[in-house]
């Protein structure tokens, strides 16, 4: 059994703050700053360029990839780190489309995170081969899984509401139709159990600054099913995806495994912070995280609905159909969230009317949930949110 009091002690939470935004940016592990300082001073400072060998910087993308792989049901050697999530979406989709040259339909959904759709739209326009991107309502996705489908590209857990797809069932449906499947795990990795190997997913991508606590700008990851990794073309043929980068061949020859999805020089300082953050997951099983997450989410829903009847639950009520976040709708949701933040309860807002709360069991407990409910109820009862300063929109919501 996990000692969640012990895991909470690993993180820095500012005094007076209840942090319910780990689904957007995870809290900082207490050892992260010291590790970053050590890397900068002792590795970069003293080793200089020797750090690529002596500090094993060159191996870091696969080494950290293995740490992430354990949490998403992937085998060692099938996940590599680097670049941004947008880049990894591009790589996965470009490779997937080449695997199905006779099919022209890409299906996502209109609740997907916009950058995934922007990347897909931009890619198929650049290819100019007659591909079509279809974005039905989430509940209508399955009706478009047929013999015309080239690639099904879905985000496992919806960023606005927390709605969660049945990954295993939908992957099988797409495979039975002869399609390739890409899963975006931005709101899944470290939040809910995932079994990429078990469901035979083709590709998966995700970020590490949310539930994995890698810090702002932490590198993304990409998973490629082992049988594909030996043959897919990486599309972005960067030198670190080469089979022998330091041979400096003029002809590109991809690495024989997922390393072919590496592009350019990895962000070593940021990846070092992520590697340190991943130590919090030592001995942690996702099944235990999931059980605790459901408990916290159910407690929050019950408390808010009992004290704030003017708020409408936007997340699925069935815990088995949602991730580790709870969202409520309210016409003036942005102002409500600003009032909450002013009182030390940090969540976030997603247009047009959703106030969103992430539940990260590594550092959120029952007392945090009770405190957040109490403060939210006071704000709603007194209409404290209806002040001019809380209606003023910031650049980041």
UniProtKB/TrEMBL annotation:
**Which cofactor(s) does the record list?**
pyridoxal 5'-phosphate
Quote any Pfam family the record assigns.
Answer: DegT_DnrJ_EryC1
User: Pathway involvement?
Assistant: Amino-acid degradation; L-kynurenine degradation; L-alanine and anthranilate from L-kynurenine: step 1/1; Cofactor biosynthesis; NAD(+) biosynthesis; quinolinate from L-kynurenine: step 2/3
What EC number(s) is this enzyme filed under?
3.7.1.3
Family per UniProt? Belongs to the DegT/DnrJ/EryC1 family.
Q: Which residues carry this modification: N6-(pyridoxal phosphate)lysine?
A: 210
User: Gene3D superfamilies from the xrefs?
Assistant: Aspartate Aminotransferase, domain 1, Type I PLP-dependent aspartate aminotransferase-like (Major domain)
Q: So what does this one do?
A: Catalyzes the cleavage of L-kynurenine (L-Kyn) and L-3-hydroxykynurenine (L-3OHKyn) into anthranilic acid (AA) and 3-hydroxyanthranilic acid (3-OHAA), respectively.
Alphabetical UniProt keywords: Hydrolase, Pyridine nucleotide biosynthesis, Pyridoxal phosphate
**Reaction(s) catalysed by this chain's protein:** 3-hydroxy-L-kynurenine + H2O = 3-hydroxyanthranilate + L-alanine + H(+); L-kynurenine + H2O = anthranilate + L-alanine + H(+)
**Enzyme class, broadest EC rank:** hydrolase
Protein name in UniProt:
Kynureninase
Residues annotated as binding pyridoxal 5'-phosphate: 85-86, 113-116, 155, 184, 187, 209, 239, 265
Domain of life (superkingdom) = Bacteria
Subunit structure, as described in the record = Homodimer.
Q: Which InterPro entries match?
A: DegT/StrS_aminotransferase, Kynureninase, PyrdxlP-dep_Trfase, PyrdxlP-dep_Trfase_major, PyrdxlP-dep_Trfase_small
């Amino acid at each position: 059994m996990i000692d969640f009091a012990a895991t909470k002690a690993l993180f820095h939470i500012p005094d007076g703050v209840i942090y319910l935004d780990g689904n957007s940016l995870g809290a900082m592990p207490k050892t992260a700053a010291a590790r970053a300082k050590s890397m900068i001073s002792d590795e970069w400072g003293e080793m200089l360029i020797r750090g690529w060998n002596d500090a094993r910087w060159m191996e870091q993308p696969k080494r950290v990839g293995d740490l992430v792989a354990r949490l998403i049901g992937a085998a060692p050697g099938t996940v590599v780190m680097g670049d941004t999530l947008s880049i990894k979406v591009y790589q996965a989709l470009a490779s997937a489309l080449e695997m199905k040259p006779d099919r022209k339909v890409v299906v996502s959904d209109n609740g997907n995170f916009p950058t995934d759709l922007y990347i897909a739209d931009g890619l198929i326009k650049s290819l100019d081969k007659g591909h079509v991107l279809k974005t039905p309502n989430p509940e209508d996705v399955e009706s478009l899984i047929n013999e015309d489908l080239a690639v099904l590209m879905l985000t496992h857990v919806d960023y606005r509401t927390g709605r969660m797809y049945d990954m295993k069932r939908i992957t099988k449906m797409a495979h039975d139709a002869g399609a390739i499947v890409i899963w975006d795990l931005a709101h899944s990795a470290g939040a809910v159990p995932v079994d990429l190997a078990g469901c035979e997913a083709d590709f998966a991508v995700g970020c590490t600054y949310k539930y994995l606590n890698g810090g702002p700008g932490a590198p993304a990851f990409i998973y490629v099913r082992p049988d594909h990794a030996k043959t897919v073309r990486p599309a972005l043929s960067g030198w670190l995806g080469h089979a022998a980068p330091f041979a400096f061949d003029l002809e590109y020859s991809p690495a024989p495994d997922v390393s072919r999805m590496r592009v350019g020089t990895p962000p070593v300082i940021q990846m070092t912070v992520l590697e340190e953050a991943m130590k919090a997951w030592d001995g942690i099983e996702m099944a235990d995280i999931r059980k605790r997450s459901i408990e916290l989410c159910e407690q929050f829903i019950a408390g808010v609905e009992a004290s704030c009847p003017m708020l409408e639950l936007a997340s699925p009520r069935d815990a088995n159909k949602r991730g580790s976040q709870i969202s409520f709708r309210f016409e003036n949701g942005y102002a409500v969230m600003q009032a909450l933040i002013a009182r030390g309860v940090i969540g976030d807002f997603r247009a047009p009317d959703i106030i969103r709360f992430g539940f990260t069991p590594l550092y959120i407990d029952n007392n945090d949930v009770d405190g957040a409910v109490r403060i939210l109820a006071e704000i709603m009862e007194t209409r404290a949110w209806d002040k001019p300063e809380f209606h003023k929109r910031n650049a980041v919501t």
